[in-house]
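During the reporting period the student researcher (J.K.) took over the structure-prediction task from the postdoctoral fellow and processed the backlog of single-chain submissions. One of the processed entries is reproduced below for the supervisory committee.
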Amino acid sequence: MRAASLDSLANLVHHCESFARQMLATQGGFLPFATFVNDRDELEMIGVQATPRDNAQAVLESLQGAIARLASERRLIAFAVAANVDIPARFEPPCPDGIRIHVETPGYARDVYTPYRLLPHQRMRKFLAILPTVAYDKPIDVDVAPTLFK
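J.K. obtained the following structure tokens:
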């Protein structure tokens, strides 16, 4: 199986980061979600059934199953999974909350953590759209073992 280009991987991360930031700004959080690069080098979202009572782990497991199925059908060449996490202390984040994007293609696997802080007075900030609701710090990139393309 061929690997995705660096541009495709950058697009995956950017797409996930943008959507996660949108969800944090409007909802204050988000459940895990995933995007992949198909065999035509196009980005696609991965949808899974989730109910309001589902927890993040259940959604993550459903996403991993969908990703494995797409890979076995040779319909993806790269994927990214975004989750709202506590950043491990060993990475010395400026704050504990973060967006984690796991991106993977054959020969490449990385986690990108973006630390964030929800700013005070969320209701007022939402009403006054010019005020940001979330502050972000510099991303932390970590090489990791692949989960699918071993």
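The committee noted the following: The chain has three helices and seven strands.
J.K. will present the remaining backlog at the next meeting.
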